[in-house]
Specification:
The chain is elongated. It has a two-stranded antiparallel sheet with strand order 1-2. By secondary structure, it is an alpha+beta fold. The chain starts with 5 loop residues before the first helix and ends with a strand. It has three helices and two strands, in the order H-E-H-H-E.
C-alpha cells in the first residue's frame, strides 16, 4: 500500500514509516469517545433520540453480559527529524 508522506516531509521528517494499529476500547471509553458525535447525530436529525437510546441500551446490555467489543483503527508514524 502506498502511503502519502508529503505532510510529514513538510514537517521535516525523513525515513518515514507507518504501523497500522487497532485500539480496543472498553464500554465506558467507547461511550465517552462517541458521546459528542452521537449528540450531534440527534441534533442534525440523522437518528431519532429514541432510536439512539434503543441502540445504546442494547450496547449496555451486551456490556453487562460480557459480549461488548469495540475498537478504533489508527496508525503510528515515525520518522527522523532533519
Amino acid at each position: 500500500m502506498k502511503i502519502r508522506t508529503e505532510i510529514f516531509e513538510e514537517l521535516g521528517l525523513s525515513n518515514i514509516s507507518f504501523v497500522t494499529h487497532t485500539n480496543m476500547a472498553s464500554y465506558d471509553f467507547f461511550m465517552w469517545v462517541c458521546h459528542g458525535i452521537l449528540e450531534q447525530a440527534i441534533n442534525q436529525k440523522v437518528i431519532s433520540e429514541s432510536d439512539l437510546n434503543q441502540w445504546v441500551n442494547q450496547l449496555k446490555k451486551m456490556h453487562e453480559e460480557g459480549h461488548f467489543l469495540a475498537g478504533f483503527p489508527g496508525f503510528i508514524v515515525t520518522g527522523i527529524k532533519s
